[in-house]
């Protein structure tokens, strides 16, 4: 048996390629939307991808299940648990809809779907048995159920999908799934989750790729609550201190349920010159994305451009500043090369931003402006209507500037009704070091707000003599 983990550092998301070498067949679990990595791996191993599945209706990225099935002819398998509110849409009519216990067979390999609700009502985990080695399962793909050192959060439906107080029932379901499914397995079963450190799908995910049932049973934070059958203590601890859920999660959840649009073959990207791009920017018919670090952006950038600093976190930050439900204008990337632009496009489609049409390699010849900055020592001299902390709420509680209000960068564009009107005056913004602040500030400026960034952000302010942060 071949078991390969394909990890996206940007979204801290793992998909899995499981193949039977004897039969030359493979299944992909929780694929992302840019599918070349799976096609390349199958070709390298001399295998055909005959099946594709996912653990649940994801909220943090757009699933590639339909994309991969369309490209390979693979059979789709999706959950049919959780009730009518969690039934996949008509675009999955040709999928096999799985109930608890459904088994997918590839040669000697069997993959059993286990209903493990809690993170979401329809959530499945997959018990994998390599029949060439044992008649018993040796691996569990846990999706967003059990992570290394943590559990999938049960509050995302409330935080991002518009539900009300489902977190309590979800937390109780998670307790039951651990008790009745996970902890009944032998300690040696390997656990392979769908996310790692940095994901917003839990609050303290480990950076190690895999764990075991026994390790989590004995050393996880939740083990003591299960051992003592303390459901209330478990629920209280699980729900306390969860990070902010990015606003785009709601869009991902809906699109993944209905069925993400198929991308097909990527169109060629156009390389623009300054002369070609200038009139398009003047009439606002394209959006320029400045991909440089905020320190370079502060030296001069195109007015109303968006700052998405580099390929590495393009999906994460891109989803903060582009809402494809309302913004369909073509995107032009500042990129050093075609290869870099294509890589960035691949990241953006993972969060449903499908409108990248071209790139430009330099801003020379374009009219540039300097984003407004204020030195922390001069902050009190700036007339402002709001001091805005765009870090997450746990960072804010750990220490913030006096008088600051909190709204995380991943929610700013979707929460303009919580801000003063653009005409009301200057908003001063900050994050921890300045990177996230530049991203959020660029989105606000594009919406017409007068924004001044705190130079160096919280760390620079906190380093001033006499600075006393507010906690709580």
Protein structure class: alpha/beta
Give the CATH superfamily of the largest domain: Ribonuclease Z/Hydroxyacylglutathione hydrolase-like
Q: What gyration radius follows from the Cα positions, in whole Å?
A: 23 Å
Biggest sheet architecture:
6 strands, mixed
Characteristic key phrases:
472 residues, Metallo-beta-lactamase, Chain A, Oxidized Rhodanese, domain 1, six-stranded mixed sheet, 24 strands, 22% strand
Account of the protein in words:
- The structure is a single chain.
- This protein is an alpha/beta fold.
- It has three domains: 2-258, Ribonuclease Z/Hydroxyacylglutathione hydrolase-like (Metallo-beta-lactamase, Chain A), CATH 3.60.15.10; 270-360, 3-Layer(aba) Sandwich (Oxidized Rhodanese, domain 1), CATH 3.40.250.10; 372-462, Rhodanese-like domain (Oxidized Rhodanese, domain 1), CATH 3.40.250.10.
- It is built from 15 helices and 24 strands.
- It has helices at residues 36-45, 65-72, 156-160, 167-180, 213-219, 223-227, 231-239, 248-258, 274-282, 294-297, 314-321, 338-349, 393-398, 435-446, 457-462, and strands spanning 2-8, 13-20, 25-29, 48-53, 75-79, 96-98, 103-106, 109-115, 124-130, 139-143, 146-147, 150-151, 190-193, 211-212, 270-271, 287-290, 306-307, 331-334, 356-360, 372-374, 386-389, 405-406, 426-430, 450-454.
- It has a six-stranded mixed β-sheet, covered by helices on one side. The protein has a six-stranded mixed β-sheet with strand order 7-8-9-10-13-14.
- Strand 3, helix 1 (36-45) and strand 4 (48-53) form a beta-alpha-beta unit.
- Helix 4 (167-180) packs across helix 7 and helix 11 crosses helix 12.
- It is globular, with a radius of gyration of 23 Å.
- The mean pLDDT is 96.
